[in-house]
Specification:
This protein has 504 residues and is an alpha/beta fold. It is 39% helix and 11% strand. The chain has a domain of 304 residues: Amidase signature (AS) enzymes (Alpha-Beta Complex), CATH 3.90.1300. Strands 1-3-2-4-6-5-10-11-9-7-8 form an eleven-stranded mixed beta sheet, sandwiched between helices. Helix 2 runs antiparallel to helix 3 and helix 10 crosses helix 13.
Amino acid sequence: MKGWIYRSALEMADALAAGEVTSLELVNECLERIEKYDDKVNAFITVDAEGARKTAQEVDRLRAEGAQLHALAGVPIAVKDNIVTRGLDTTCASAIMDRWKPPYDATVIAKIKEAKLPIVGKTNLDEFAMGSSTEHSAFGTTHNPWDLTRVPGGSGGGSAAAVASYMVPFALGSDTGGSIRQPASFTGTVGVKPTYGAVSRYGLVALASSLDQIGPAARTVRDAAALQELIEGTDPMDSTSIPNWNSGLEEAITKRLAESGRGLRVGVVEQLSGDGYQAEVLEAFDNTVERLKQAGADVKTVSCPSFDYALSAYQLIMPAEASSNLARFDGMRFGLRVEPEGVENPTAADVMSATREAGFGPEVKRRIILGTHVLSAGYVDAYYGSAQKVRTLIREDLNRAFKDVDVLISPTTPSTAFLIGERISDPMAMYLNDVAAIPANLAGVPAMSVPNGTDGASLPTAVHIIAPAGADGVMYGVGALIEELVEDQVETLPEELTTTQVEG
């Protein structure tokens, strides 16, 4: 029977356990879907058909033999291409990586392989995760499956687009300032940034180490929870990993749905609405708020004044850390190597300069230059130091808010998906898409985007949920409740993309 690819990951898992479908059949459906549509969507940089089928066949054999397997064993998955995979290209969507094949697996990949989920491929992103549209990729722009003339968001647009277009049921992404949640908003999927340290960053190619976090992209909140429960946990290879971590997500979801909104305290962030927000985005959000009230939730307005400065602080901290992290790409140790033309006996500095000029794209260069300036003598205190003070203020605002409410909510993005090329020459307009997402990264708290409607052009809108550090279960519970309350307001992408959609 065909059509399994349109089911949720957990429905696939149940069908596998019941013997209604094989893992190989699921993988083949994914690969057929990719073959049919990815030349238009461009969600994948690398497709590993052979590796996925091999894992699927192993799962099918073990299940036939009566072996005890992980609940998600055999369910296909995709991985953002800045998470290292042993023997499989990891490019970070950059020419400078030169189709690098890592000699080791990231911790999250090791967990996925141990649980025997077939990895279908590596997904497209903005180069080194620097961007909000997945237009800054050495492997071409990813298109939004809802409208191929529009962006899927970024930096993890490939993972979100792959999930939204039924190429895989879920995927891994990374989130430094909204890179999982903003694409989720644009593509009508669920995107989650866990508490900083809940999921190991070992093997994630670093953008900004104090902000980066791996998390799930999925079509349902329960699917996202199942994936996070698989990949989370303490890791001795990551010094920022939280000791004795256990989120209990599924239990929290079940408890919240049983209680509906009773006993739930919700704060609407005053600073994340109004001017600059698309009217239909605000309308969908107001409808979500009203339904939470009807379900019994206590909803109040909460002020977080430091949020007004979060974007500015982020645009100093993130480039500074990126500049430092990307210094390793020097044309010497791995990846691309370019020797300067017309230079006899070039020095290491000459080779490094020529390699970085040829290998880095314009957005990466922009952020490295900014970050280097921010960290330079005479400016570090004025810029980087001041930004860190704002970061402290954001944490204080959140701590104060969470004394009165369980979660904070807002629209995930000020607008629905914009046209490809519309903001490519205006970095600030591009960066403003992440204004609601950034505070969670600066504070290290968990955050989630859940679809809550569509605009007049049938483009998805979404609600953003922030919870206190460590309260991932609370966040997932609220996310599942909202998902249930607004179900009738959320459109789904047609199973078969129309000619108009494909040709854009």
